[in-house]
Amino acid sequence: MATSIGIAKKDRETIAKQLSKLLADTYSLYLKTHSFHWNVTGPHFNSLHTMFETQYNELWLAADEIAERIRVLDVFAPGSYSQFGKLTTIKEEAGVPDWKEMVEQLVAGHEIAAATSRATIKAADVAGDEGTADMVTGRLKEHEKTAWMLRSLLK
Questions:
Q1: What pLDDT sits at residue 1?
Q2: Half-sphere exposure at residue 84, Cβ-oriented, CA atoms within 13 angstroms
Q3: Can you give the residue range of the structural domain that contains 54?
Q4: pTM of this prediction?
């Protein structure tokens, strides 16, 4: 049965392409945050360990919501490390930086995800896709808030 939600197929594909980038950013940020949760050390261990756990749980749920929105648009969602690696601009961390570098990397990651969110909202607006724009506006606000909270630790 054909998808008929009031958005042309070409527009759904364009929006899904942007959502796929956001999904890749979200999943990459999830992996990095979870790794930092496991490996953080230093005088701020307890607060950062707890904060990172809250953040990676939020990102995990967000990834599912984004992937499901891609499916609503009748496009298959990317789901492999290699696909995510091609779509994201968040740099992978193969080592274990100190706590301050962890926080700096997460700030940068959330800022990248915020920029990707803005581009996705613009694509959704052009096509009249209020559902995607609404969902991604929530993601944008979450990334901006998390970046601010993490940045505050560095002052």
A1: 76
A2: 18
A3: 16-153
A4: 0.96
